[in-house]
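Lab notebook, bench 4. The sequencing result for the construct came back, and we need a structural model before the next group meeting so we can plan mutations. Quick request posted to the team channel:

Model the 3D structure of this chain.
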Amino acid sequence: MSELSLPARAYLLACDTARDRLPDRERVALLVRAAALTDLVLRGRITDDGGRPAVTGAGGTGHLVLDDLLAELAADPHRKWRARVRRGARGTLQSLEAQLDAAGVIALRTSRVLGLFPRRRPEVRDPAAAAALRDSVLAALRSEAPVPADVAALTSLAAAVELGAVLPRGSRRRHRDRLARLEEQAGAAVPALRKVVRELHAARTASIAAASGGGGGGG
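Done. Here's the predicted structure in token form:
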């Protein structure tokens, strides 16, 4: 799957191939968006300019998601990395899924929960290749040997988004120093992703706390 873009590989990494589902679409959307930014960094198409991604060079990449993001960055160059990870994440995820479906990498099944709410379930056409992606991430984490920049980036992204099915919390803690070194190869989107995920956790925790305390005010 080396011909796939980094966001495509990040998506496949997040898929539960045993159940044909994508756990926590909101977090995966952030992962895919950060992976797209990181891919452009690795290709030399964007660089950090005072805490903001700045487009360099001209021409397309051959990947529609990446080229759409390049156009977006060129049209509005003033947002910082964290805002770029959040902004448009859902649309980037949907665009990527449509392209992977059209390319035959996944079969995207759409159903409705309670007959009302649409739910997308991806069937990965080559589960063995997806498993190989997971193996490469685990190997990069556990080894001290140099790894390609895209593998280092994919591992860093999986850790930043807390993809527990791939990198459990204990492994992330044990290999914290290794992750820091891998992240150095990936660029500014990875720490931005980590901050956005923490904000998401905090918002969800606050929402749960508010809901659980909502019925106890009386007196």
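Strands lie at 46-48, 53-55, 106-113, 117-124.
Will bring this to the meeting.
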